[in-house]
Amino acid sequence: MTTSDAVQLRQSALATQIATRVIFFIAGMGMSAWAPLVPYAKTRVNLSDASLGGLLLFLGVGSLVAMPLTGMLAGKYGCKAVIVTAGLFIMLVLPLLAVSPTPFTLALCLMAFGASIGVLDVAMNIQAVEVEKASGRAMMSGFHGFFSIGGIAGAGLVSAMLWLGLSPLNAVLMIAALIILLLLSSQKYLLSDRLHQSDSPLFVLPRGWVLFLGALCFILFLAEGAILDWGALFLTNVRDMPASQAGLGYAVFSIAMTIGRLTGDRIVNSFGSATILLLGSLCAAAGILLAVSVNDVRVTLLAFLLVGFGASNTVPILFSAAGKQETMPVNLAISAMTTIGYAGILAGPALVGFVSQWFSLTTAFSAIAVLLLAVAASARLVTR
């Protein structure tokens, strides 16, 4: 190989890594843009906590139906086609979430939104695993760090525009325009190759180790989903924060996630995956318990910060573990594990709504903290 060929290969690899980071940013921004809209949607269609929880099930159903198919689609058509299609659907559905006038139309929009987010999440993580393998070094935390940057951008920008007096529709139209610009700039460098061999199955049921990793992802994503879908309501209903400022909870959480993940690859290499998974889970559990124990808005925001720091590198560690296993083809394993795990972030918050209705939102958050302790207990087994 000539020097010019080597340089060209390095430049191509760098462009692919940058494009992967951009897609993670889009996913985080698209998902978090929904967080500040939750109180407005609840008021617009006159929903109780239990009714909102029921509607959030449609978001989870859409995602859980689409996710198992994504591994097959990425294997057959390549990550590029799947990622671009999902990104365009997110751009189209977000404005509808801001204006849906009835519970029925909101449910349909949430289902389409969940499906689009779910497909994008699976496809981008398949791409990330392949790019990480090609690089020969840990990159997963960094990729997920750009998801967190997108979370800051989505929740922060929408909250800022609402605070300045823009309508929910105009706020999310700005986000949709940004999504299409980013897709156009990055799509050229996404992976378009088929990911499965001719003798590999297009779909297999998750089993064994992949199921276990999926269960741990469920718990971790449930904690994140509680902040995404219920953090704003917790701040408004329990801590009496104005609705126009309640998106700050998820923004603070995302800032902590960003700092943790952007430094995560170095931290994991220095201290080991087992230590980071153990301490991270314990930190997230402590943050949630602090949020429900102290009746002060500032302390609650600090608690969300702790949850973000604690959870920041736990999920990337699990995705890297799934990429290394040999029980299933990688694209199908990532699809299966993400399907199980994202039930936590998408369908799990609906359970929070029902627990909140029968007991309290504080009780629901406390139960999540207990589940995080189970993740901490599994740290050594995951990273054996």
UniProtKB/TrEMBL annotation:
The chain crosses the membrane at residues 18-38, 50-69, 81-98, 104-124, 145-165, 171-191, 203-223, 243-262, 274-293, 299-319, 331-352, 358-382. Keywords: Membrane, Transmembrane, Transmembrane helix. GO terms for cellular component: membrane. It is a multi-pass membrane protein. InterPro entries: MFS, MFS_dom, MFS_trans_sf, MFS_Transporter. Residues 16-384 form the Major facilitator superfamily (MFS) profile domain. It is found in: Membrane. Pfam families: MFS_1. One of its GO terms (molecular function) is transmembrane transporter activity. PANTHER family: BYPASS OF STOP CODON PROTEIN 6, INNER MEMBRANE PROTEIN YBJJ. This is MFS transporter. The lineage of its organism: Bacteria, Pseudomonadati, Pseudomonadota, Gammaproteobacteria, Enterobacterales.
